[in-house]
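hi! just following up on the protien thing from before. the input was this:
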Amino acid sequence: MTDEDIRVAAIDFLEMAPLPGVKILQLDFLDPEAPRLLMEAIGGTPDLVISDMAAPTTGHQKTDHLRTMHLCEVAAHFAVEVLGPGGHFLAKTFQGGTEKDLLNMLKQNFKQVIHIKPGSSRQESVEMFLLAKHFKGRGAASALADDSENDDDYDDRDERYDDHPDHDHERDADQD
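and the predicted 3d structure came back as:
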């Protein structure tokens, strides 16, 4: 890959080392211009939106959770605005009880939503990831808002993904 063959756009308010094929924007994602600049950088409709944003911690667990959940929600709304049908969204979040609205929005817009706890994450850590797979396309949420069968879209298992030899990677592929 070269700088002329951009396949990934990244944004961070901290400086990042250059990577071939990646357009890096040094900017806060909450800046009103950030979504437009990201879309210009990628030059098309993305297949995947990944967010590992987390607010700086204050030491107050509820405050830290709320601030990080806000960032996750902003990223999720961005994903719904820009992904093409069949696209995926992965975001870091913290467990803490305020994610119900986010989960409902993701369930309305994606065919499958899974909690993932990476094997590298400490068991006591509240950090986890949400993986929303197979974007239904814009307008899907309003068409499904009254669909009582929509609750089947959420997989509440606490997945732990790691490279352990006993991990059943074939089972994971079957869920795609």
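Residues 61-82 form the longest helix (22 residues).
Confidence is low (pLDDT under 50) at residues 144-154, 156-176.
cheers
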